[in-house]
Design goal:
Elements (H helix, E strand, L loop, with lengths): L9 H14 L3 H13 L1 H13 L12 H9 L3 H4 L4
Length: 85
């Protein structure tokens, strides 16, 4: 964990102080929680979505050999179009 110093305006400090008192926690904990929700929530959601996406084609039989299918999709025709092939 890293230590940092923040400058908060009086209204924000008063709100955090009151909330910390009600929740029996610290202002630091409230700030860490808010920062996680704001800046890490999207990352966690994206990671979960990507993990759910991995392997979704593994049991498909309609495309034949997956390696051949991907090679066909990626086939580069640039040299042919330029008349160099």
């Amino acid at each position: 964990m890293k230590r940092t110093q923040l400058y908060l305006d009086d209204d924000l400090w008063d709100a955090l102080h009151a909330r910390a008192r009600i929740q029996k926690t610290t202002i630091s904990d409230l700030v860490r929680e808010a920062a996680r929700e704001k800046y890490m929530a999207d990352f966690d959601a994206r990671r979960r979505a990507m993990e759910a996406f991995v392997g979704i084609w593994k049991d498909r039989e309609d495309i034949g050999d997956p390696d051949e299918y991907v090679r066909k999709l990626r086939h580069d025709t640039r040299l042919k179009r330029l008349g160099l092939e």
